[in-house]
Amino acid sequence: MSIAFLGQVPAVVAILTPELLSAALSLIGTFTSLLAGLALIHAVMQQYTGSRQVDVGECFSRALNRFIIALAAIIIFILVLIGSTILMIILVGIPILFYMLVIWFFHQQAIIVEHRGPIEALGRSRELVKGTWLRVFGIGIVFVLLLLALSLPGVIVGLVFGIFNDALGSLVITLTNLLVLPLLSVSATVVYIDLRVRKEGYDLETMAAELGPVPSGFSI
User: Which of the four pLDDT bands, split at 50, 70 and 90, describes residue 89?
Assistant: First the structure.
């Protein structure tokens, strides 16, 4: 929760600031949310090893080290999704869109845990999903429904409060996201571990070796 909170600080502050500054903070918040998501992946891996407590500082150091790569991978991902959305207009892109969402779902885990580059991470995610697409898709649907069920009460309360006070309504919705959205990074990482166990005999020794010390500087 502390990792998730640090990622949402700019978004929370943006709600309470003038419009121009609020827009800048919201943009910063987009990047800090990504950073927190990457840090959460490392936190889950640390928790699984059981050899030490989760170190928030180390999680963010690892996330910062891989941030540029993760950002590049997301840009590629978004460009492909935009292409799929355009194709969706003629009904061809709907299956392509869902196919891409599933096969590339674990690219951030590949970046953080396996130190892959942006293109390599997308390929690695596809490799892990290969042969289990329907299973991963089904798990994803369950996750989405659970997240919607958990977030809906907070969103409704936020919208009601927003009728009387926009800032208060936005704050409630942001805090709801703070509580719910980290579950996506955590659950996705658990499924990533499960896929590697099933396909590669992934074990705690290999996991601990992959975590290793935090590299110095930024890796490109």
Answer: low
